[in-house]
Design brief:
about 10% strand; Rossmann fold; single chain; 21 helices; elongated; Alpha-Beta Plaits; five-stranded parallel β-sheet; about 55% helix; alpha/beta; HTH_AraC-typ_CS; five-stranded mixed β-sheet; DNA-binding transcription factor activity; 4 domains
């Protein structure tokens, strides 16, 4: 069989890339899609390792466009042919790429199977190293092509005998590995290293198993396992070992194993839906090395949305402790509801930060610093790698908000308390109690009583008696006014009660106090 012509597709639109990949069973016509990239920079990295014969590239792309990519490819890889995809309005770009030596171009609006195949065949015949012929393929669909079709969501007919040859056992499962984008080069294991490590460990533990690496995103790796059910325990133990070892070296790496399935065609559903969902649960289980559906705890049932209306009412009434306690209870419950996506959880926290900032600002609290910092909180919460970090950020924000609340409360309390004390001193001789005082300052008497006790060293009655006794002592020292007259002058209608209060405060009766002072 003659060598197939390898193709790399470069386009920032995934639908265009997928459309080209699945136009035809390319192997039947002597072609093979070896990779795809979303911009010129990604394409150059792939070209170095894949060494395709033909690059199909869009013109307008972010980071590095098709014109620059074409120039670099023609300069550094003169044996690679370039075909340009363009729209009608990009004629100047197309003309400049032709000056760089592109083989051909195709208008995107007219992109169809026949034209694409003809352009590729014309271009392939220019490549002497492969001696392309239209029947270069052996008209057999390879298992790689079948798998790529299935995981991309396309249906495909394939030879069952080929399936049995490639995967002789009755059970299938997918293994997913997700890594954070490395900060430094070499900080994370490439997918090929993970595959080699997994293969060595699994094949040492099991005799009847097939592992195959599947296409995946840059910071992820997906492996297909075909195994005999009798070796399930050994297989799982080996996978768990590798996951735990990787986790120790790279704490942000997470592994997941899908459910077992017998029907090979179910791979599409598991690859596209079930495995990504399982990997997304890592946000709620950052310390778990390997996630499996049947090992997860039962998710906590939580109301679909936070009662923001009630929260707002509590905030407006300045019932901050109640409002924040309700919020913390809801967030704690949501942090165990792993079926909610990380995006939904982070959006909840971001909305809370925003609403608290607005509410406190409207209520006259000094929110300049927090208002300026809220965007930093939004970004930090959005970047939080796991639920515990996101909750910690919310708690930090609530602490800062509480500081502003406390600052104003203390400031306001000091001013209010001063007014109360001044009023009591000025009106001590009048009929003064919590009810009359509350009416003047528009306070509920029971609230005023607790407020006075909380913000002063004495209660209201103790302080009023102290002021009246001090005024009575001045009168006792300054003249010959009768004790009965002094009693009514400082606010006591009953002289005997006045005598009792005076003795309690000073340790003397009014007459004893006067004699001691005169003596």
């Amino acid at each position: 069989m003659k060598e197939l012509c390898n193709i790399l597709i470069v386009d920032d639109e995934i639908l265009v890339r997928q459309g080209i990949k699945h136009h035809l069973s390319w192997e039947q016509y002597g072609f093979r899609i070896v990779g795809e990239a979303s911009n010129g920079k990604e394409a150059l990295e792939l070209i170095e390792t894949l060494r395709p014969h033909i690059v199909i590239t869009d013109i307008v792309m972010p980071i590095m466009d098709g014109e620059e990519l074409t120039r670099i490819v023609r300069q550094n890889y003169p044996d690679i042919e370039v075909i340009v995809l363009s729209s009608y309005g990009e004629f100047n770009y197309v003309r400049s790429t032709f000056q760089q030596g592109v083989a051909d171009y195709i208008l995107k609006p007219k992109l169809d199977t026949d034209e694409l195949l003809q352009v590729l065949q014309r271009t392939a015949r220019k490549i002497p190293s492969i001696q392309y012929q239209a029947d270069a393929g052996d008209n057999r669909i390879t298992m790689d092509h079948v798998i790529e079709k299935l995981i991309s969501g396309y249906s495909i007919d394939y030879d069952m005998e080929l399936l049995k040859q490639e995967f002789p056992y009755v059970r299938f499962a997918l293994i997913g590995v997700e890594q954070v984008e490395p900060q430094r080069k070499g900080q994370s294991h490439p997918a090929s290293d993970l595959f080699s490590k997994l293969t060595d460990r699994v094949t040492s533990a099991c005799e009847q198993i097939v592992l195959r690496r599947l296409p995946s995103d840059a910071n992820a790796a997906v492996f297909l396992a075909n195994l005999d059910p009798r070796e399930l325990h050994s297989w799982m133990a080996a996978v768990r070992e590798v996951a735990q070892e990787t986790k120790q070296v790279e704490p942000q790496t997470g592994w997941a194993v899908s459910r077992l399935f017998d029907d090979f065609n179910q791979m599409s559903e598991v690859y596209q839906d079930e495995l990504p969902k399982l990997l997304s649960y890592r946000f709620y289980f950052p310390g778990t090395a390997l996630l499996m559906e049947d090992e997860l705890p039962k998710p906590v049932q939580v109301n679909s949305s936070f009662n923001l209306k009630q929260f707002t009412e509590e905030m407006k009434r300045e019932h901050f402790d109640t409002a924040f306690q309700d919020l913390r209870s809801y967030v704690a419950a949501m942090s165990h509801n792993y079926t909610s996506t990380a995006f939904e959880f982070k959006s909840l926290l971001g909305n809370i930060v925003f609403n608290i900032t607005i509410l406190l600002g409207n209520q006259g609290y000094d929110m300049k610093e927090l208002d300026a910092a809220k965007y930093s909180y939004f970004k930090a919460i959005n970047d939080a790698p796991h639920v515990h970090e996101a909750v910690r950020l919310l708690e930090t924000f609530l602490d800062e908000a509480n500081m502003q609340i406390l600052a104003k409360t203390q400031q306001g309390s000091s001013a209010s308390m001063k007014k109360l004390l001044e009023y009591i001193e000025e009106h001590h001789a009048e009929t003064l109690n919590l009810t009359t005082l509350g009416q003047y300052f528009h306070f509920n008497p029971s609230y005023l009583s607790s407020y006075f006790t909380a913000h002063h060293t004495e209660g209201f009655s103790e302080y009023l008696n102290k002021i009246r006794v001090e005024k009575a002592a001045e009168l006792l020292r300054s003249g010959t006014m009768s004790i009965s007259d002094i009693s009514s002058t400082v606010g006591y209608s009953d002289p005997s009660y006045f005598t009792k209060v005076f003795r309690k405060v000073t340790g003397y009766s009014p007459s004893q106090y006067r004699r001691e002072y005169l003596h």
